[in-house]
Write a structure and sequence with these properties.
Blueprint: H1 6-15, H2 32-43
Helix pairs in contact: 1-2
Length: 47
Amino acid sequence: GSMKDRDYMTKILRELKIDVVISAVGGECTLDQIELVDIIKCVGSVK
């Protein structure tokens, strides 16, 4: 999967009931974290 694949990331966060996300990307991928944060907010299970 990819952080840019919103449907995949949402599915994984929900199915695996993930409640903590640690993102360690750098360089060109830093702005991809904005999408990840939006997905996390949508799922609602992450603390």
